[in-house]
Amino acid sequence: MVNWQNTLSKTWGTFNGWVVAVGAIALLMVSPILVVLSSIFANSSEIWAHLAATVLPQYIQNSVLLMLGVGSGVLLLGVSTAWLVTLCRFPGSRLFEWALLLPLAAPTYLLAYTYTDVLDYFGPVQTTLRALFGWERATDYWFPAIRSVWGAILLFSLTLYPYVYMLARVAFLEQSMATLEASRSLGCGPWRGFWTVALPLARPAIATGTALALMETLNDFGTVEYFSVPTFTTGIYRTWFGMGDRVAAVQLAAVLLLFIFALILLERWSRRQARYYQSHGRPARQSAYALRGWRSALACLVCLLPITLGLLVPLGLLLSMTLRNLDETLNRSFWTLGSHSLILASLTAGLAMLMSLVMAYGVRLNNTPPLRLGVRLASLGYAIPGAVIAVGILVPLAQFDNAVDAWMRATFNLSTGLLLSGTIVALVFAYLVRFLAVAFGTVEAGLGKIRPTLDDASRSLGYGPAPTLAKVHAPLMGSSLLTALMLVFVDVMKELPATMVIRPFNFDTLAVRVYQYAADERLVQASAPALAIILAGLLPVILLSWQMTATRSQSRSQ
Question: What percent of the chain has pLDDT over 70?
Fold first, then answer.
């Protein structure tokens, strides 16, 4: 009996309020995913049969094509730039170390709107070409269509390559310099050394970054909708709102989850493999190759191109349109939309930080397998597309609202309407499911830097777990908590798919209004909200860039 109790205690830890809180958060965060998965066993409607026979193959084909194209694009841009700035020395390499992260601040759908305005038939590029060469009609010349699956692949690659760049750069930095020097002593030049030594060692990190980029690709709604590329996210939206069939929409979301789970498995496998690919010894903290002449110029061009196309060009265009049309851009509507986005982002960021503190400290007190599993489940939402989370939330909330309304009508002859599904409560819940992992990762890292001896000292002074967290740990984690707040705040500002599905009536955000203006070909009116989203997104990216640069400076000084 005693052995059984000891085994149970080792497995589950002390059953207290922290364990209950972490379990409740995990169950709440994973519930939308469970709702979507349960729809696989629901009775299929005629609309689902129609979708499966007509558009489902196209959704799968376009999704696979996007994954292959974007995967290739982010690998090419991310790995090449990471190798150049880490192990090569050329003019501007120090600047490019942090600047190559900046395109991550611009949502892909904003690039889609700006580049369409520039490259479309009536845009300045084609208009100039027709004037120069005397062309009069579109049939007189060929110009690549930006609003196509290939245009989407290009723009996704320009905005998502920093995921690969970040992890590949860290992997290259951690590689043993002795390994690279040994390859050079055997006659391997920079190119051969990269292919035969550096790239295989960095493969797990590169695979993880690619998986993250592909998850963001499958989550996108604004770009593929604007480019008329049918994918699962556009199909979910059209099935729900166009056909009015929630069951079919949820079943589409379940099929999309299969793609996501495959990417999650790839990402987890890559992390496990990283320990075997890690080398030891003196890190590659010195530039191994000095580039000169045309090689130096080519390296600068390779690093400058994604920054220019992924951020500087769209940012400059939006800024120009905003300043040239201040009466139409910075009007009352803009400030109203900004306040809506500010309220949602602030509320979500605060709740995410508090929930992350509870989870991280709960695991610190009871580091047991079930609790670690609960935290992992609660953090799963970041990999799930916003459209999937949205339908997983709206279905049960709508059923709850309808049940309460029916009971109130039958009992008191009163209609309660939409108590939850028609309010910002549902929207904030969706944001928490989607972005809790962002806050938790930062908070957990900050809490892990605090030595356990401080917990022991606090207990010796008579403080319990909650006072210790509030009076000891939280003040020491100020920078981590602020970073978590900022990261979630910016992610909420940019989120479009979940907001499009769940937002209350007549409660638009900056991202939603940008999408609506762009759909109506009113890019001038969309410029100020789009510019605000990019500027907000630059804050955490600059912070991350600064941290990466500081990390490298510390490694050089060691």
Answer: 86
